[in-house]
Amino acid sequence: MGKIVVAVDTNVIFSSMIRDEGVSRVFLLLSTIHPDMKLVISDVIYEEINKHKLEIARKAGIPIVLFYRGLNKLLSKVEVVNIRGKFDKEYLMRFVKDRDDAHVVALAFCSGARYIVTYNKKHFIKKALSPKGIKIRTPPEFLSELDYLWVDRFVKKKSRGIIKTKYSWRLSRKHKSKK
Asked: Which of 19, 52, 71, 161 counts the highest number of beta carbons within 10 A?
């Protein structure tokens, strides 16, 4: 079986860079070591990341030098695909409800992706993409298809009259039951 090509939407990349804990970051990190997975982003997404990198670093609360190091490491693990001029925007509108997401479909077509991983599932027309062999998934749904289980946990603790909330997560392999 060949590599699973995954087209990653901008919102997943941005989310992974802003939150140091969370499923988006784990999805991207796991994909860099998963031997059967190849992540792709379009040149449009790459330019959007570069356009907003200072704002993302500020929101993440990370010193700019460390942010650039992390961004460069992340981008070294994904393939950037040129999609400009490859598809007519009107043709792509058959597959999306939001014109701003047409480039993600163009990316999937150009790269041969079987998945589009996004937090904006409602912007894509599943019935139109399904016959093309493309599935729309959020990061947790995609991880689940790879037999990983994602668990978010929020723990509230009262200390000296102040309620503190602690976030933690866990990623584990699902156990397949024997029949």
From this structure: 71
**pTM over 0.85, yes/no:** no
pLDDT of residue 67: 82
DSSP characters for the chain? Answer: ---EEEEEPHHHHHHHHH-SSSHHHHHHHHHHH-TTEEEEEEHHHHHHHHHHHHHHHHHHT--HHHHHHHHHHHHHTSEEE--TTTS-HHHHTTSBSSGGGHHHHHHHHHHT-SEEE-S-GGGB-HHHHGGGT-EEE-HHHHHHHTTEEEEEEEEEEEETTEEEEEEEEEEEEPPPPP-
Residue 175, in any domain of the structure:
no
In a domain? residue 171: no
How many domains does the chain divide into? 1
For 7-21, the pLDDT digits (tens) are: 999 888 888 877 766
Q: Is residue 178 part of a domain?
A: no
